[in-house]
Amino acid sequence: MVLRAGAGDAEREHVRLYGLHVASELPLHQDRPADPAEPVDVTVLWGEGAGDASEPTGARVLLDYADGDRAFYTFYELENGGYLLRFHRTCDVRVSADLATVHVHLRDGADPGVAAILVTGAVLSFQLYLRGVAVLHGSAVDVGGRAVAFVGASGMGKSTMATLLCAAGGSVITDDVLRVDLDGVPSVRLGASELRLRKGADELVGRFEGQDPAVRVSADERQVLRLGAGADDALPLAAIVVPWPDREHTELDVERIEPTVAVFALITYARLLGWRDKAVVDRHFAQVAQIARSVPVFRARVPWGPPFAPDLAERLLAEIDVRA
Asked: What is the DSSP letter of 274?
């Protein structure tokens, strides 16, 4: 269930994601209700269509990411103190200097559903970075009151592995964006309640017989599982697994990575790539080093499907010594 404000509040959805109370005009499709009467951290609003795509005058580039000749996004700190998050084929996102207000400006012909995906992913990740919070590119599952996280680049199987653990009795904590709180024992915060599966992994939907999960196709053509909000918030982080899909082998191979090596393994999988801001880069490195010292990190070569072995989740939990 998502709580909504009254008509005078433009029917905004109120959800709690990554420890932030978000009020959004965009449908975010999350089972993380927040009380509209409580203070809001981030308000997300539709703006007018994106206009001039030239580089803003006097702006400072905070991060810039491209793959070869294909530019994905460029984020600017503006001369007036606000921020411009430019997703080159989809939208411009204007963020106020105090991070409290976000306006989404669609480009002509862009799918509004893709903009909503960017808000729950990259835009809120940007918020976390600037608020000084540790964030990784990962998904996590509640296994017996402890969090097991999967961290890696896009396409490495994070959501698939989380789905396997949920099918074996776990509850989804977050998908794609992993906030880790580092005051005391590292703990993870509730985030996206949907699991977005790539082609092939969608055969796992059949493993939820009797649970009747909501299934839809997202704007970026992923099969999306909505499994509900059964996980608890701020669970201790028991283990991090970096999955390596392998279609050539039939055996699961798991090894623990020493902390000094784990730092560099995890730093590779930042949720936002291409940071140029030294303060953010230095803080993120220190946070990842603290995580690697405190939490066991494993590399798992996973026999990849479809089909996936029926006991794959149980075998993985046994290898990393985390059992429900």
From this structure: -
pLDDT in tens, 2-39: 444 443 455 899 999 999 999 999 999 899 999 999 99
- CA separation, residue 219 to residues 117, 163, 183 (Å): 8, 20, 37
Tokens of 17: 């994601």
β-bridge mates for residue 102, sequence order: 44, 95
**Dihedral through CA 236, CA 172, CA 178, CA 302, nearest 10?**
100
Average pLDDT, the chain: 92
Instruction: Return the pLDDT at 217.
Output: 83
Q: Cα–chain-centroid distance for residue 166?
A: 17
Tokens standing for residue 262: 């784990």
Q: What is the mean pLDDT of residues 254-274?
A: 95
Q: What DSSP string describes 206-258? A: GGGTTT--EEEE-TTS-EEEE--S-SPSSEEEEEEEEEEEESS--S-EEEEEP
All structural domains of the chain with their residue ranges:
3-131, 135-319
Q: How far is CA 197 from CA 13, 27, 175, 200, 245, in A?
A: 24, 19, 10, 8, 14
Question: 68 pLDDT band (50/70/90 cuts)?
Answer: confident
Could you give the CA distance from residue 112 to residue 115 in angstroms, rounded to a whole number? 5
Q: Which CATH architecture has domain 135-319?
A: 3-Layer(aba) Sandwich (3.40)
| Residue 46 structure tokens | 């539709």
Residue 10's pLDDT is: 56
Please tell me the pTM assigned to this model: 0.93
For 62, phi then psi, to 5°, come to -90, -40
